[in-house]
What does this fold into?
Amino acid sequence: MVIAVEDCLLAALVPEAFEALLRRHPDVALGLLRALVAIIRNTDERITEISTLGAVQRVGRELLRLAGPDPAMPEAWSIAPLPTQQGIASRAGTTRETVARTLAQLAADGVVERRGKALRIPDRRRLEALIEGLPAAADGPAGG
It folds into this structure.
């Protein structure tokens, strides 16, 4: 089952028509290949993270992936709306409790700030350095 977050225009093609489309329009084939390569690279990166990084590092990396420039503060980054702790945990391969502890510690250290349903990262480089400075096995590679 698929649930659309926004209005979408969808189409279905039988395999033969899809192959014909790709043959007639190489730009479509190249676009499809680029999208598939991006998916493979992203999946490979996540598998590597899950097998080599501790849970706190994975949560931090997920926050960095979700963050974008904050329109209200050009030097800051934000995540709006902030996914649930369970949503972050699922994406980072850890538990909701680990996400809660990590967010609480980052907030106590002034690395992140809760703003209603958003999370602000005043200094992205500080969060990056903090994550990279953690020992990989601090909470176990598959720690939860």
